[in-house]
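Bench notes, afternoon.
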Amino acid sequence: MLIDFVPDGNLYPFASRWFDSSVGRVHYIDEGTGPTILFCHGAPAWSFLYRHIVKALRDRYRCIAVDYLGFGLSERPTGFGYTIAEHTSVLGELIDHLQLDGFVVMGHDWGGPIGLGAVTARADRVSGIVLGNTVFWPIEAIANRAFSMIMSSRPMQRRILEQNFLIECVLLAELKHTLTTAEADHYRAVQPTAEARRGLAATPGQIRAARPLLERLARDVPALLGHKPTLLVWGMRDMVFRPNACVPRMRAVFADLEVVELPHARHFIQEHEPDAIAAAIAKRFSQV
């Protein structure tokens, strides 16, 4: 199924583009010209999360932001498992389809493992990395694993599917003082029914189930990408990926790393501090 929703052109002033992957139709935007930046969202968001950053950078960069299958305007294909490994594979197909080379990849939340997972196999084509409030190693924190177990329980799965819990009580609960009503409705509108939310419902369980992929990334990212110019933009009030636990590990992996702390931002940094993130990207990768 595809989502019957047309974004407001004032809020999301981008042309929709489509890629027929091996398992379903993928929606993405491709704006501007110049060095390419590939933006990878997390759950429960979609490419709308990057709208301010894309608008700020598209006069100097080619900005590509993708919706994973099950998210945003992309298809909800029958038989798709919505695992992080599957999303990674589809993103790799899109990278190859667009023949991206010499590009920067940005990942946030699950977009970190998905983006990095896709580019470890294409490391020679990557010129830089941006990471924000994400990890690429097995998630051991008790709070995160408890969240995974609770959200995977039958009662909470029902709330995710029937009441849109992850949008209403996770994303919008954090951003209630940041978004306008129309902006909030753009997050709701792309997850309109229980059937459309199957991809959302699968993501909490991946905190535990994606361990094999995360173990591989914990080995491959330092070996294959650890020398790439890297920018870390981190919401310092994030309770999901706490800076004291995550930032030092990032520093240990990337030899050429710049860190920009966003002191007032929580998890969804693109909504809290889009201008600061866009400026940091432009400064870090001005010579790409």
